[in-house]
Amino acid sequence: MSKRSAGGAIRVAVAATSAVRRAGLESIVRGDADLHLAGSFGALSSLASFARGTDLDVIVIDSDSITDLLHVPAPDTAIVLLTEISDARSISRLLRSGVRAILSNESDPDDLISAIYAAYGGLVLLSKPTAESLAAVYGDQPLEVGDELSEEITSRETEVLSMLAEGLVNKDIAVRLGISEHTVKFHISSILDKLGAATRTEAVTLGIRRGLISI
Questions:
Q1: Could you report the per-residue pLDDT of 71-91, keeping only the tens digit for each?
Q2: Which of 124, 147, 170 is the last residue of a domain?
Q3: What count of other Cβ atoms lies within 10 Å of the Cβ of residue 7?
């Protein structure tokens, strides 16, 4: 995952063919103090050109065209997709291509914000219908979405993990790092996911065992 900009905000670009939907996405991103709207596009081709020369953290795309989506170059950028695409094969292809969150076009703003933070933190987030579609086809078979999903703990996550070991709560961590409690929450969710831990205590224990925390 790329580093944040100097101001500490997560750099987000949005794309939607509908001007109304695009304006809605812009408003949602601008409404969160920890997000920075780096660009807004009506065509995925324009977004693709922009992404090649710009350091982005997350791309939010409103589209039902899987063909166009698979041609958006974003090897180091998490993609959040708002779509009505629901068949398991297409979803699997999208996840393999770098999409990290798949929501309905009609998702609430809070759900989109959560998806942006989750994707930035290295998590995969799917709407309930999308997850059910995959489960119906793949059952208990593991879904191979690429080695990227097993990312190493980032330096910022290591900081947060160390503070958890100190017994600090989210509010204290947010103050010390100069970020929002919302951001802290998603850093912790990412840490738990990457370590395979169910609780903060277990995450700290695993962090010590793996040498992530000095004691």
A1: 666 667 888 999 988 787 788
A2: 147
A3: 8
Q: Is residue 82 part of a domain?
A: yes
**Are the beta carbons of 62 and 47 closer than 8 angstroms?**
no
Judge residue 197's burial from the number of C-beta atoms within 10 Å of its C-beta, 0-12 exposed, 13-18 middle, 19 or more buried. middle
Q: Are residues 61 and 159 in the same domain?
A: no
Q: What is the mean pLDDT of residues 94-113?
A: 86
CATH number at 70 reads 3.40.50.2300
Question: Locate tokens 């109304």: which residue?
Answer: 20
Same domain, 194 and 102: no
For the chain, give the number of residues: 215
CA separation, residue 14 to residues 47, 105, 135, 200 (Å): 8, 13, 29, 33
Query: Cβ neighbours of residue 18 under 8 Å, at least 6 residues apart?
Result: 62
- Predicted confidence (pLDDT) per residue in 17-57, tens digit: 999 999 999 999 999 999 999 999 998 888 888 888 888 89
Residue 215 three-state SS: coil
**Residue 89 lies in domain:** 10-147
Please state, in angstroms and rounded to a whole number, the distance separating the CA atoms of residues 157 and 176: 14
Listed residue (78, 88, 170, 149) closest to 115, CA to CA: 78
pTM of the model: 0.62
